[in-house]
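Hello,

Our lab assistant flagged a job as stuck in the queue for most of the afternoon. It eventually completed. Since we weren't sure the result was trustworthy after the delay, we are filing this so someone can double-check. Below is the sequence as submitted and the structure that was eventually returned. Let us know if re-running is recommended.
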Amino acid sequence: MTIIIAGYLDFDPAIAEKLIIDARPHIDAALAEAGGRAYTWALDPLHPGRVHVFEEWADESALHGHFTGAPYRDMGAHLNSVPILAMEVKKYRFDVAEPVYDDEGVPRADFFTLKNGR
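-- returned structure --
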């Protein structure tokens, strides 16, 4: 069962970009962890100081491994080295993932591959 972590953290806009650039070693280490499929921290161009986080983990075991490992601990220490002004980060689990676009290139809101038995 795939787990997604998504949300944002707000920092002083004067330091947010450097904070994320300097986090590169922690991000790279997390990307190398078993069961990690995505680990992205990105500045929001429309909300100065806001950093979006997106992670994808293969399952609870992989996420647990991340939470108990050095990359998580080190990233947390890095982020907490400056004031976090606001934060909302949630985890989601799901059992179905499929393309947004069907075979004709049409974006679909329904889960069309389930209807086709794929």
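-- support follow-up --
The delay was a queue issue, not a problem with the job. The result is valid. Helices lie at 13-22, 24-31, 60-67, 70-79, 112-115. The chain has a mean pLDDT of 94.
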